[in-house]
Amino acid sequence: MDWLLPPGARRDNFWIYSSAAIVGLAGLVKLRHGALNFLYSETHCYQSVRTNQAVYPYVNCFSVSPGGTFSKVFQASADSKLVQNADPGYAMPGLWDGHGHLLQYGEFLNSIDLFGTQSMEEVRSRIREYVNDNPKAGSREEWLRGVGWDQMALGQMPTTADLMADATLADLYIMLDRVDVHCIWVSQAVLDLLPDPIPDVDGGEVVREPGMGVFCDNAMDMVMALWPKPDNKKKQQFLQSAMSKLNEVGLVGIHDAGVSPGNLELYKTLAMGDDWTVRVYAMIECYERNTFCPKEVHKYVDPGGRLSIQSVKLFADGALGSWGSALIEPYTDRPDTSGSLLVNASELVYVTTAWAAQGFQVNIHAIGDLANRYAVDAITAALRLLCPGQDIRACQSRLRFRIEHSQIIHPDDQARIHSVGIIPSIQPTHATSDMAYAEKRLGGERIRKEAYRMRSLLDVQPILGSDFPVEPPNPFQGIYAAVTRKSPHTGQAPEGFPNGWYTEESLDLDQAIRGFTEGPAYGGFTKGKSGVIRPGAYADWVVLDRPLETMAIEGLRTLNVRETWVGGRMVYKRD
Ligand SMILES: [Zn+2]
């Protein structure tokens, strides 16, 4: 136990330094565990504490039990020692990201950052820089990985030849993820490992124009199969660097949106260690996408809340940026295509029902309005099969099926989502990243009636998140995007939207905070345990210089957290 406490922390158990008292404790343990908890608890006081509770929304102190839960949440009187010695900061419940990718984020932190690249030369120069710092990378055993390119910013779909243009990179094994991780761009060395000619793939695209080199959605699988996967030691490094970055932005928990059975085994072995500083609600992703693989993975819920495996991730379609999301009507800027589904309707119903019948929550990735329709169909069919003759809403509130992204939803299906209570899992920064081109892709009417809903979905308890590493994980930027519908990076919306992009779907500050606290708690079966400061909840909180409620909204774009605490332990402190 760490006896060095930050200012403001008070231990109520000073007397246990007395050896006589320690001897006496043994008896106490048997007699009253609750009393012991109280005696050992430590108390923290701040200028104010936002609790997220209806009854006492703001207090100034709480106590934390040795088990890492809040034991007491209270208002100490202004003239008390506790308040006089209180920490100068402002506390609020620790934030959760309702949809991110932990290992991929760690990998991203240890790979080439291509976000924001505007030209092929800029991409090549970032690769060169990385190779200078990591001269071993790029071998057949350790491919160079990068993420963040976007063909729209680059001016055209990239090709293998664009990487070959630099002789120093020509022989390297390179695999670079598109900004939305739904496409990969590879070097000639990787291309040479593939069969010749390269076959087309259902539910995916082998991009052939203006040249070879990019593989999207299901077509990525044949490349991924050749990629020498990082070993567990490397993955452990990735997880650690990801978790410390997440703590740095005030995150105490995440919903990990797709983890393979093998990686879940690794998670289980690491979750009890001191380096596991982010609570993980993991969604199973079978080795073969959209399948039922109950033999490969078992339900696991750590009572301490460090790791929970009770949900599964399915994929109905791809992403909007690469025209991969499945639409009812063709794309406005590419009338030749409506995107592609990754699974057919009856299979989706079968897999959803099969998992749900085993007691797993089912979370379906759906971006386009056709994919969202199929997701609603599958969830509704599964609920009817699992709860015959019962109220479908009550059944859903027990099983809590979700649609990940819920990005473009036909009004008819929005109505079904409301009536069944299907949970939308939304990334506010996707709206503000896509707003520059979404209208071109979808046309004005679809944007106005279907896309990037938030406020109109409030009654179905939306979960907010970032989809890191697709977007940065900072939840305060997510809150900013939800409230202003402007980019947290520029503070701007596209031309013609001086006050924010379709602000009729914006949230107020309180709703946005709840999307990063209560929303993930409800959607992850930890309501009352996370996202709230109340007795019995996990002692997770963040400390800010000023309360969000009194801050100018623009301040959220650059907000730096002072401290982050998980299970009563400080996991991040700003220098
Ligand atoms: Zn995702």
Structure commentary:
- α13 (369-386) packs parallel to α15 (411-420) and α16 packs across α18 (475-484).
- Among the domains are: 9-88, no CATH class; 111-224, Diaminopimelate Epimerase, Chain A, domain 1.
- The longest helix is centred in the middle third of the chain and has 18 residues, at 369-386.
- The protein is built from 20 helices and 23 strands.
- The chain is globular.
- 50% of the residues are buried.
- By secondary structure, it is an alpha/beta fold.
- 32% of the residues lie in helices and 20% in strands.
- The strands form three sheets. Strands 6, 13, 14, 15, 16, 17, 18, 19 and 20 form a nine-stranded mixed β-sheet that branches.
- The site of zinc ion has 4 residues, from loops.
Low-confidence stretches: 1-34
Per CATH, the architecture of the domain at 111-224 is: Roll
- Termini gap: 23 Å
Total beta strands? 23
Q: Which sheet architecture does the biggest sheet show?
A: 9 strands, mixed
Total helix count?
20
Rg over C-alpha atoms, rounded to the nearest angstrom? 25 Å
Present as ligands are: zinc ion
CATH topology category name of the domain at 111-224 = Diaminopimelate Epimerase, Chain A, domain 1
As a percent range, the share of strand residues is 15-25%
The CATH top-level class label of the domain at 111-224: Alpha Beta
Helical proportion, percent range: 25-40%
Q: Which whole number gives the mean pLDDT? A: 92
**Helix vs. strand class:** alpha/beta
What is the global morphology?
globular
